[in-house]
Amino acid sequence: MLRTLLYKSQPSRFYSTSSVKQITSNQLVSWSNEKKLYSDLIVIDVRERKEIEQKGKIKGALNIPLSPKLFSAALSDINKDATVVFHCQSGRRSDEATLLAGKLGYENCFSLTGGMNEWKGPVEPFMNNHSPWVHTILEKETETAQYVVTDLVTKEAYIIDPVLDYDPFGPSVNTLSAKLLKLTFTL
């Protein structure tokens, strides 16, 4: 009964991991020595910020929490040609992230078997640099970019839209009335 209720409330949380490509801790350490970090190899930590603060992180790993509202959008900024390795604390969330990445067109993605519980490489302590996340949205009609700047700690988002007036039949794009909008969101 409880499983049925959970499935109805969050059907995306029930999935088969049989098709998830796995990588061991030793393999990832080897790949880290062979490949260029951030261009050929991207390691993504899908744990929440609080977990990273408590347990540390794999050196060079990017943090993209497995949040339904932000994960897909943040992942779209990652190079689809790179080898992407997801990890969490135990491997369950990284399996889910790997499946989701595959559905979004990432072909060379892996889940770290056992997550941080099995990690045998160096662990960096958490450094509170409090940097925001910037996502670029390209408007094909206007050939301009919009930017969404979010801060997961303060739960603030800024939408920077340099073009708010656009006449598809006009000769040019008017930027005279561009504004900065401040929005607060909750996760």
Automatic annotation (TrEMBL):
SMART domains: RHOD (SM00450)
Domain Rhodanese: 37-125
Molecular function terms from GO: thiosulfate-cyanide sulfurtransferase activity
Alphabetical list of InterPro entries matching this protein: Rhodanese-like_dom, Rhodanese-like_dom_sf, RibonucZ/Hydroxyglut_hydro
GO cellular component, one term: mitochondrion
Pfam families tied to this protein: Rhodanese (PF00581)
Protein's recorded name: Rhodanese domain-containing protein
